[in-house]
Amino acid sequence: MRLTYVFVIVILAQCVWPLWTQVIHLTDMYGTIKSPNFPESYPKEIDLQWNISVPDGYQIRLYFMHFDIEPSYLCEYDYLKVYSDSEELAVFCGKENTDTEQVPADDVIMSPRNVLSVAFRSDFSNEERYSGFEAHFSVVDVDECRDRNDEDLACDHFCHNYISGFYCSCRYGFLLHSDNRTCKVECHESVYTERSGEITSADFPKPYPKSSDCMYRIELEEGFQITLEFDDTFDIEDHPEVTCPYDFIKINAGDKEFGPFCGEQSPGKIQTGSNTVNILFHSDNSGENLGWKLTYTSTGSECSPLAAPLNGHLEPLQSNYVFKDHIIMTCDPGYSLRQGDEEFEHYQIECQRDGKWSSDVPLCKKKESQRRHRSLPSILTNQILS
After folding, report:
1. According to the UniProt record, which cysteines are disulfide-bonded (predicted)?
2. Within a domain: 386
3. Domain total for the chain?
4. Has residue 384 been placed in a domain?
5. I want to staple 237 with a disulfide (CB 3.0 to 4.6 A). Which of 63, 69, 287, 296 is the partner?
6. Which of 233, 215, 213 is nearest to 285 (CA)?
7. What integer pLDDT is reported at residue 143 of this predicted model?
8. What share of the chain is helix, strand, coil (3-state, %, to 5)?
């Protein structure tokens, strides 16, 4: 019974893999990896690992010149494994490809990052002589401008590759953000003083810049009230559960606040009731949304309608008049405008910001010369009779 127990222990010991792994660290820009004793048969019970690491900005290219490892179902016995960090890239064994075994043949393995490991294991027995493998590795520059799968490495506008790295630049009118890849705009405060106009996000209808805070200010004289109307094309990054946490528009007009606005639903028309409006547009460092456009108009305080004086006319004749509108008054031939002791051929008044006219409407009175001409016959008649 004791002999049987010892025999079982010996059999189990032969099936156990080596308890330690020999690790070889490689940092060269190129090199060769061979199985022990290559091109002679490799030893039993090998547990050997090559860890290749190169500087950031490079990948590692691995290819095989020779491969001959003991074949087994799913490479259970001897095998060569290639991985990067914890990501397994390939497992090889045998002399040729089968349904359950794979050999590298002419395949080239590229590491996804700047590290690559090659692990070689052999078990306690080899039924035949297997010559092992010979592999070569070399460093390859990563073209970050071409391989832009990782969003963190992408440039907003222009990407320039160089050996072991890349850098970003921006189109004219944009500035490179501190993250060295995002392009933002300098738009701290743009002031609009015309009575009507158009305002858009930068590059509209192309995606607006990231990491920007733009302030647009409409500033008109007191007496005007500003109306904003957003275009139907409205596309600002939003969130299905939280109100505008990323990008948004906020509007301040006097003591009123409108927004924040985001998403694809246009805010439409907004009557601000103020002569000054501040529009803040904020964007974070991600997203490819198209932005927004608005037109603004203004209306002034209304003045009461006016009637033309007797024997006079108003220009222009309108159903209503608002702040800054002018009216020019004239009289029929033989009449002139009188305002106090002054006489005018034409007279202009203006609708003011408080809704009142700048002056009363003068009267049209006969000119002095006309009155003198009409009294001359009676004067002559009186002289003849006397």
Report:
1. 187-214
2. no
3. 4
4. no
5. 287
6. 213
7. 86
8. 10, 45, 45
Distance of CA 189 to the CA centre of its chain: 19
Q: Which residue has the tokens 């070689």?
A: 120
Quote the tokens at residue 227.
Answer: 């109306």
Last residue of a domain, one of 246, 267, 300: 300
**Whole-angstrom distance, CA of residue 258 vs CA of residue 119:** 63
CA distance 228 to 159: 38
Question: Residue 264's domain is classified under what CATH number?
Answer: 2.60.120.290
Do residues 195 and 278 both lie within one domain? Answer: yes
Q: In this structure, what token pair is assigned to residue 244? A: 């505008």
Map residue 354 onto helix, strand or coil.
Answer: coil
**pLDDT band at residue 173 using 50, 70 and 90 as cut-offs:** confident
Of 60, 59, 111, 65, nearest in space to 89 by CA: 111
- Give the position of tokens 């039993």: 44
Residue that the structure tokens 């003068």 belong to: 362
Answer positive or negative: Cα dihedral of 133, 139, 140, 143.
Answer: positive
Structural domain containing residue 175: 143-184
Which residue from 322, 321, 333 is spatially nearest to 369, judged by alpha carbons?
333
* One domain for residues 239 and 213: yes
Local confidence band at 385 (pLDDT 50, 70, 90 cut-offs): very low
Does 381 fall in a domain? no
Q: Global pTM?
A: 0.59
CATH at residue 162: 2.10.25.10
Task: Judge contact between 159 and 148, C-beta under 8 A.
Answer: yes
Residue 335 lies in a domain: yes
Average pLDDT over residues 160-185: 89
pLDDT digits (tens, 9 = 90+) for 10-47: 333 334 444 578 999 999 999 999 999 999 999 999 99
